[in-house]
Give the backbone structure.
Amino acid sequence: MSPAKQALVDLSAQLPADCSWDEVMSQLYVRQKIQQGLADVETGRLLSTEEVCFEYADTRPLTSSARS
C-alpha cells in the first residue's frame, strides 16, 4: 500500500464516525503539510529566523495602534 493510502486508512480509523468532509480534508491537508515540512528539513531546505524576517518584513499587517 502506498504511504498516502496508508495515511488515509490510519486517519479514517482515528476520526469520529460523524465527521464531515471538511474535517477529513482539513486533517489530510495538515498532515500533508507536516510531511512536506519534515521532508524539507531532511533535505536541508531551511531558512534562518533572520532570512524569514527579511523576506516578510514588508508584508506584515499593520497593528491596531499603527493604523490610527
Summary: The radius of gyration is 18 Å.
